[in-house]
Specification:
- The protein is of the alpha+beta class.
- 46% of the residues lie in helices and 20% in strands.
- It has one domain.
- It is built from five helices and four strands, in the order H-E-E-E-H-H-E-H-H.
- Strands 1-2-3-4 form a four-stranded antiparallel sheet.
- The protein is globular, with a radius of gyration of 19 Å.
């Protein structure tokens, strides 16, 4: 066995990867905060009118003190002006009922909207998956074109 394959070496690699993942998560959360600042600035300058976009349900968690995994909160991604990214927090049963009945969830989601900075760290981490899709929809809604890295351009 090579010294680089020793259990100690493998453990060090795992620790290094874990640290890099944590740093990437922190950087991504900081980017969302920066995006929210830019959205607020555009709104305050009068360059963007009222926008409220509802994305997908991205996270669910049980109510505190309740062991039933089917009872809890559903988090639905949002992007609004002037606030920026956030999540509408629904009771899971109410959310699924609204979806089954094809009720527009937008109006109720406005009332339940929580800013990104106020979400728990776990909800913030799960939210990051939704950022690109909501940002693209926002840019289209304000008449701008989403930009993709050259490797993703079609």
């Amino acid at each position: 066995m090579k010294s680089s394959d020793s259990p100690h070496s493998q453990l060090s690699k795992l620790q290094g990867h874990g640290l890099r993942l944590r740093q990437s998560l922190d950087q991504s959360q900081a980017v969302v905060s920066d995006l929210n600042s830019q959205i607020r600035s555009l709104s305050e300058a009068g360059l963007v009118h009222e926008v409220f976009l509802v994305g997908d349900a991205f996270y669910a968690e049980p109510y505190e003190g309740i062991d039933d995994a089917d009872i809890g909160k559903a988090f639905v991604s949002t992007l609004s002006t002037p606030s920026g990214f956030g999540a509408a927090v629904w009771d899971t049963e109410e959310y699924f009922q609204a979806c089954r009945q094809f009720d527009p969830v937008e109006s109720v989601s406005r009332e339940r909207n929580v800013l990104f900075a106020e979400l728990s760290p776990r909800a913030q981490a799960q939210f990051l998956i939704e950022v690109q899709a909501l940002m693209d929809r926002f840019l289209i809604a304000i008449g701008a074109k989403p930009v993709r890295p050259k490797s993703q351009a079609s």
